[in-house]
Write a structure and sequence with these properties.
About 25% of the residues lie in helices and about 5% in strands. It is mainly α. Strands 1-2 form a two-stranded antiparallel ribbon.
Length: about 110
C-alpha cells in the first residue's frame, strides 16, 4: 500500500515500474538525461516536467494503466493530466475533487489547478 511506502520509513522503499507493453523495466534514464541537459542549458526547469514514467524509453509506448487504481484504461473513460499521467475519469475525479488532492497521484509533484 502507498501508505507503507510514503510512511516516515518509506525512503527505504524501492519501487520498480514495468512497461505494460514490452514488459521491460521503466527507468527512462535516456529521457531524464535529455530533459536535465535541456533544463541546464536553458536555465529553466520546465523541460523536466516532460519527464516521467508514463512512457517507456525502450519501446516508446505510453503506459495505459490508471495512475490511481493501476488497472488498464479502456475506451474513452480516461483523463490526461498535463504531466502526462492518465487515469480513469472516476478515479481522478475522486482523487482531485472528492479527496481534495492537488498533486498528481503518481507522485511526480505536478500541482493541479482545480
Amino acid at each position: 500500500p502507498w501508505d507503507d511506502i510514503m510512511h516516515s520509513e518509506g525512503d527505504q522503499s524501492l519501487i520498480q515500474l514495468f512497461c505494460d507493453k514490452c514488459g521491460g523495466l521503466i527507468a527512462n534514464e535516456t529521457s531524464k538525461e535529455k530533459f536535465t541537459l535541456e533544463a541546464q542549458r536553458t536555465g529553466n526547469d520546465n523541460p523536466l516536467k516532460k519527464f516521467g514514467y508514463w512512457y517507456c524509453d525502450a519501446c516508446k509506448k505510453p503506459n495505459t494503466l490508471c495512475v490511481v487504481c493501476e488497472r488498464p484504461i479502456k475506451e474513452l473513460s480516461m483523463v490526461l493530466i498535463d504531466c502526462g499521467h492518465q487515469g480513469h475519469f472516476s478515479c481522478l475525479k475522486r482523487w482531485f475533487l472528492e479527496e481534495g488532492m492537488t498533486e498528481c497521484p503518481a507522485g511526480c509533484l505536478n500541482n493541479i489547478d482545480i
